[in-house]
Amino acid sequence: MTRPVHRVAPTTDTAIRQDGLRAHNLILTFQQIVGARQAPISRSELATGTGLTRPTISRIVDELLAAGLIVEAGPARSGSSGRPRVGLSLARTGPAGLGLDLRAGALSACVVDLAGAVRHLDFAAHAGREVPPGETLASLAAMAGKAVRAAAADGLTVVGTTFAAPGPVQDDSLVRFAPALGWRDVDAGATLSALTGSTVVVGNDAALATLGELYAGSAELRDFVCVSGEFDIGAGVVLAGGPLHGSRGHLGHVMVDGDGPPCACGATGCLQGYAGLREILAAAGADDPAVAPAVAIDALVSAGSPAILAALDRAATALGVAVSALLNLVEVDTVLLGGGYSLLASWLIEGVEREISQRVLSARWSPVQVRPAPLGPDAAVIGAALNSIDQVRRDPNRWLAHTRP
Ligand SMILES: [Zn+2]
Questions:
Q1: More confident residue, 392 or 292
Q2: Portion of the chain with pLDDT greater than 90, in percent
Q3: Which of 15, 269, 295, 331 is the most buried (most CB within 10 A)?
Q4: What is the distance in A from the centroid of ligand 1 to the CA of 273?
Q5: 251 Cα–ligand 1 center, Å
Q6: Average pLDDT over residues 335-356
Q7: Do 111 and 394 meet the contact criterion of CB atoms below 8 Å apart?
Q8: How far is the centre of ligand 1, averaged over its atoms, from the C-alpha of 170 (Å)?
Q9: CA–CA dist 347, 293 (Å, integer)
Q10: Minimal CA–CA distance to 283: which of 323, 257, 315, 260?
């Protein structure tokens, strides 16, 4: 059998090569401005940082200014000659990312701008598994429409939407299993895309929460695990300042007790049965689906309930056992307690740290710090919005092509 012969266009065309080089230099320059984290950066600092010539930097800066991706931030600092330099920073208008999220008791929508600042955050009550998936997704689509209009009123154009789903996701679209909601094989991406009229990407909520905490954290926070307890307990891993791709993060289904109770996943003795927020409440004989479980637990602790303190103690031990298994495999120096756990951190940290110090081999010479995650329950929706703007932050050329006259 012979293969059909295709004529291949010559790839040595000078114009194409020059376009490629221009696009590459523009990405290189833009990355320096993004990396400055809103601290104004001068044209000469850009030339030093990229190794490009001053005229090339000037041309690129003019192009980014004309496209509205960056702004002149005024004389930011003085050079060695004492001459004031005009600082450049990311614009607060232009492209924006939209995130959608489903958490215990609520739906939420969030818009972030190019700098990663939250510009719109909206919530709507949600009755959990009593609501059919179609109805939930229609409510999320309505919130997305409202968020897009709010963003437009602020001079922002939503360029992408990501939905943070509480369970494993296949092909950035299909939610395979979300036990807290009773979802199985719900194609949330296809449904939301049809309802909103634009492509909606679906990601796992714990992974997106980790992305949110990575952006929100200090520059020193480079190797950490973020454990999110909102519905299903999940964990995201960040190594060398970047998310670990390919990590499944289903921490809730790590076995902590071989003789433990059956889990919704079909196995027995899963962490979820001991440290899930609803399971902590149930162990203390209290569960009110109308109240976010972390808030309900907090209220019981404040009222001095011995049953909830015992349930939290048991949860902390189980969480510490499961996290230790993870920390024996990846080298991180920090564990962030995220999602609903961030509100309960003061009752969990001691137990988690105790288990880590006993079970993680390297903890003897390299201690691991456990602390509440700064964004807490909002991390997943903010991370989803950041994921949506990330393509422009990485490569502004597509936005430029869209805005060029
Ligand atoms: Zn399980």
A1: 392
A2: 77
A3: 269
A4: 8
A5: 9
A6: 96
A7: no
A8: 19
A9: 15
A10: 315
